[in-house]
Amino acid sequence: MSTSSSSSSKICYNSDCTELKSERPRKGWRLRTGEFAELCDRCGIAYEEGRFCDTFHLNAAGWRNCESCRKPVHCGCIVSAHAFTLLDPGGIECAACARKNVVLGQNVPWSTPLFFHSPPVKSWSQLAGSGPVPWRQAPTLFNSSASQPEFHPRVSYEVDLSTGIDRIGASERPSFPSLEKRKIESFSERLMNGSLKLGTRDILENGHPGINGEEQPSSCSNKPQQQSSLLKQDQSNPQFGLAAPHTSQDETNGQQGVTNTHLRSVTQPPLTKQFHGSQQNGLDSSNETQVRNGRSRQEARGRNLLYPRYWPRFTDQDLQQISGDSNSVITPLFEKTLSASDAGRIGRLVLPKKCAEAYFPPISLAEGLPLKVQDAKGKEWIFQFRFWPNNNSRMYVLEGVTPCIQNMQLQAGDVVTFSRLEPGGKLVMGCRKAPTAPASDQDNEGKTGNGVSVHVDVDLADPTSWSKVDKSGYIAKEALGSKSAISRKRKNSMLVSKNKRIRIDNEDLIELKITWEEAQGLLRPPPNNVASVVVIEGFEFEEYEVQRFLGPSSYCFMFTCLCFFNF
DNA sequence: CTGGTGCATGGGATG
DNA sequence: ATCCCATGCACCAGT
């Protein structure tokens, strides 16, 4: 960990020490090795990565300074009288001086094709002024053409922005020996309140590092070409998985999108992980947000923590898998271990409430809204993101995940990961197999092997190219068949239920054959598996023991599969 | 009859 | 004590 590797700069917001710290020359800041903290050499107060520091205010993307009045304005999760007003279609204006500022444009998180409905946020003040709003009071949003995105309660966050930063005395410096726990807590806190920011994208798109303009260092990472260097920095922390998603500026228009501190570009070698330290976070320190006065609020908000089991624990492989060969930046959001229900036939993936509310678009109606998700292979799926009331709360689910889960060969115990792919804000669903596949027969059916796909890829960039999207997430070109979505829905059900398999129709067969080569490869047993031939009623079955997919006591009958595929 | 949908329930996690 | 969420189940529509 070295601050010198950072191309960013940060500023100590101790009012006695407002000197800009440019890290590239490694001036002013030094890292407390092993303590995950940084000290300002000038005032000596430590900034501890992994927690909210009341003293230091990193040059985070979430913080902006009005170009006119220079007052810091957080137009993200923080709501205050000094909030920006988001202009349609995306500009923001300082509530203090009314000057129009950064144009969010495509930064609007849910304006991407991820969602079909992405009404622009008309006004930040409308959303922010009222502070946290329980969802029950939230207006109809995506389901109304005139709707506005609502803030998730947890992302509404009040901070006194007028004073810049609260100061803490040395006595209030964090006690680092116990950092580990706090680090986790703060991670979650920041994850939940969106104050942990990388903001690289923000910087890139806004060209504004988020600190006072006059304080912007020459080394501030408000240049796209510097992103890579930033990303490189966060590649050495093995605790990457604990990296905190955070809100980026573009996710502030009513959405609490989350951007992990460990944004990374897979084009950059080797993907190592970092967590501690602003540099370790892969954050340009200038990109990090440390919320002033955050401690008490964070503590309070900490009660809204995302449960640790949902913290993204992405591995390099995960990220590589998701990002592929692109230059995309992955923002791990959260992950969830599939339950039996999730991986079952119902096709409903229960989403952790906090995750759903934090990272998915707000929904006011139980019908929810379609959610476009890209899997690790680049295939697009449409899930219905919805909820139903449950004990004065909500239960969020993704409907229609069965085909995707089967495509990924997931079963109970495996982990699905949700990330955001930048640029574009695509929601990416990855997967990670359980270390030891639990013996589970409940979802044995429909296993088609690695990567088998029973849908035809379409150019989802062209909305006209996919006209049939059923609730099972199936996306099909209309040209492929004249059957209704209901038919496809039924088809997908077949994939789930073996009882339905015999009812597969010709169209289904056609589409299945399209990917038969894939299926063959997937059905092929592992090299170390030796088939035993069993003759049943004159038919030869190649029998393999397939522990991975079917459990130790289950067997995969190739012939059955062949019959299924009409071979 | 089967499968999908919506909701309820209860165990477990969390505060 | 409260909340989350995995799961069960009743109802309904389609076949």
From TrEMBL:
InterPro entries: B3_DNA-bd (IPR003340), DNA-bd_pseudobarrel_sf (IPR015300), Zfn_VAL1-3_N (IPR057743). It comes from Rubroshorea leprosula. It is found in: Nucleus. Residues 221-237 have a biased composition (Low complexity). Residues 198-257, 272-301 are annotated as: Disordered. One of its GO terms (cellular component) is nucleus. Residues 334-435 form the TF-B3 domain. One of its GO terms (biological process) is regulation of DNA-templated transcription. It holds the Pfam family zf_VAL1_N. The lineage of its organism: Eukaryota, Viridiplantae, Streptophyta, Embryophyta, Tracheophyta. This is TF-B3 domain-containing protein. One of its GO terms (molecular function) is zinc ion binding.
